[in-house]
Amino acid sequence: MTTRSDIAELIFPDTKETIADLEKKFPARKNPICSRFAPSPTGFLHIGWVYASFIEWKFAKQHDGTFFLRIEDTDQKREVEWAVDLIIDGLRFFGIQIDEGPVGENNTDVGNYGPYTQSQRKNIYQIFVKHLLQKWLAYPCWMSEAELETIREQQTKTKVTPGIYGNYSVRRNKTPDEIAAQIQANPNFVIRFRSPADLTKRMTFEDVIKGKIEMIDNYNDIVLIKSDGLPTYHLAHIADDHLMRVSHVIRGEERLTSVPLHIQLFNAFALPVPQYCHPASLLKFDEDGNKRKLSKRKDPEADIAYFFEHGYAPQGIIEYLINLADPRFEDWQKANPDKSYLDFDIVLENMSKSGALFDLVKLQSVNNGYLSRISTQQLYNESLTRAQKYKPATAGRPDLATLMLSDPAYTQSALNIERHTPKDPKRFSTYADIESQLRFFYDSEWEEMNGKLKMEDWWLQYDKEIMKKFVAEYVSVLNLEMPVEERFTQLKEIGKKYGFASNNAEFKEWWYIWKIGDLAMFLRIQLCCATQTPDLYSVMQVMGKERVSKRLQA
Ligand code: GLU
Questions:
Q1: Measured distance CA(416)–CA(437) in Å, rounded
Q2: Is the pTM of this model over 0.85?
Q3: How many A from CA of 333 to the centre of ligand 1?
């Protein structure tokens, strides 16, 4: 007569190690706080993943614990080869440091709890599932797709809760003899969990973020090992998070409904259940004003590539995400303007419990706040790095990085205009704004733009001879060291002589043809080839007398 243990032996004759052996190899960590990021490599880095992984990392760091990366590639249909690098580079871009994972050269593992890629852990999952087979808590199942489909149809038709459970699982109650015979006849099967619950049972658990949750318990005999020998996500989660000694499973809210099953599985193995923490999903308003989850298919901003292309600073994004995670952050930041966001402690219990609204306008303002706050040297370094990596087509003109490097000191002075002053115009919402506000400072670019400008009408309204004379006089007395007020008075005085009224009253009453504002615009366009620029006097100061004179006289 075949015993239950014989079935386990028959299926996994070569698996000799036990879970206890594995536990010796991967002992409890000295500091028990450990979290992980466990993405599937699909070739796409969702902003929600950055949100979750930042919290996972930050939480571990706050407790001097470990944060590791595990690649969940057991669904090989979905796998993309370069996706692992995309994930690692993505996390690094946001300053998230990975302690352990496939982060060595050529994705070799770093850390003592590997392999960190699930497809390399097949033997471990077999040890786990063999254990459940021995305990009769799992069983092989030969149901074909067609059979499963028939059951689904029948359940829909009779309005019965769908799933493979109870009598719907035809192999659940077979004897060891019957199973042994079938294994000999057909080695192609999956292994299912024998769920201890039925449709009526409810369960409760404590989510660190969401608090106490009550749900219907799992009643499904879910698949643990697929017919290709690889585990499903559920079995892998138990084996990996136990052996990798994860204390806090911080993961997307969409996994919340799997908790009853996962707790059943931990119990089946008689293993401790980790702390579950499910941060709320990132939401947005759709066209009809309803909140919905940020969607990979519908929303370009779901992909972090979007933020890179649009010139957002990684720190700006992270600050915004912290805002979403814990609304206390905004006040903390105001009270601690000199501290880094890394000094703010995220308290999981305080995190928002329902969906966090991801709003691009608010993100831009946070990003703008970040770019206004950092030192000009840092702004220069960060925007240069960005310009070196991201080069939009410039139609034959040098790219921004080349221009910035052509004169770093001049570039920094140009960036620095009115920064950190009460007048701070918050010039840059994103790195992308820097390009249009810097390009005209460089002479080669100004010449090119000015050449094109001359074709346009704006300056035809002025009498060329009068403007030439004005420029000659203005340039001859130009003194950039003079205080701004005096320079403005001087401009008004000279302007008057050439027909520019100093104010509206003069303009109405006297012979003036133009106003001082027109003159300022004339200077602005002549110097910058743009109607909107930072403060004109500061621009002149940065450009220096020689350059200003040359541009005005051109
Ligand atoms: N690979 C799973 C996913 O991408 C991970 C879920 C988890 O963190 O446990 O959804």
A1: 12
A2: yes
A3: 32
Q: What is the pairing mode between strands 138-141 and 282-285?
A: unpaired
Instruction: Grade residue 267 by pLDDT with cuts at 50, 70 and 90.
Output: very high
107: left (phi over 0), alpha (psi -120 to 50) or beta: left
* Ligand 1, CB within 6 Å, residue ranges: 38-40, 72, 233, 237, 251-252, 255
Residue 302: the pLDDT is 92
CA dihedral 350, 355, 356, 361 (to 10 degrees): -160
- Residue of 184, 188, 185, 191 lying closest to 169 (CA atoms): 191
Long-range CB pairs of 469-472, under 8 A, 24+ apart, other chains included: 469/498, 470/494, 470/495, 470/497, 470/498, 470/519, 471/552, 471/553, 472/553
Distance 361 CA to ligand 1 centre (A): 29
Nearest partner of 137 among 224, 21, 260, 233, judged by Cα: 224
Number of C-beta neighbours around residue 274 at 10 A = 20
- Three-class DSSP category at 134: helix
Query: Measured between alpha carbons, how far is 401 from 394 in angstroms, rounded to an integer?
Result: 12
Give me the mean pLDDT over the 502-524 stretch. 84
Place of tokens 């600050």: 319
**Residues 118, 243 contacting (CB under 8 angstroms):** no
Nearest CA to ligand 1 atom 4: 39
Type of residue at 132: L
Q: Which of 34, 235, 251 to mutate to test the pocket of ligand 1 (most atoms within 8 A of CB)?
A: 251
User: Candidates 253, 255, 276: which one to mutate for ligand 1, based on the most atoms within 8 Å of Cβ?
Assistant: 255
Cβ(386)–Cβ(431) below 8 Å? yes
Taking the alpha carbons of 396, 399, 402, 406 in that order, is the dihedral positive or negative?
positive
How does residue 473 score in pLDDT terms, banded at 50, 70 and 90? very high
Q: What pLDDT, on a 0 to 100 scale, did the predictor assign at position 354?
A: 83
- Token digits for 190? 């999956």
Instruction: Give the model confidence (pLDDT) of 416-465 as tens digits.
Output: 998 887 776 677 889 988 988 899 999 999 998 888 776 555 555 677 78
196 and 138 Cβ atoms separated by less than 8 Å: no
What percentage of the chain exceeds 70 in pLDDT? 97
Identify the pLDDT of residue 80: 67
CA-nearest of 406, 405, 411 to 434 is 411
**Domains delineated in the chain:** 4-15+122-277 (3.40.50.620), 31-120 (3.40.50.620), 283-373 (1.10.1160.10), 443-554 (1.10.10)
Range in 82-86, 421-425, 441-445, 515-519 with the lowest mean pLDDT: 421-425
* Beta bridge partner(s), residue 276: 207, 249
Separation of CA 211 and ligand 1 centre (Å): 21
Ligand 1 centroid distance, CA of 49 (Å): 10
pLDDT of res. 457? 57
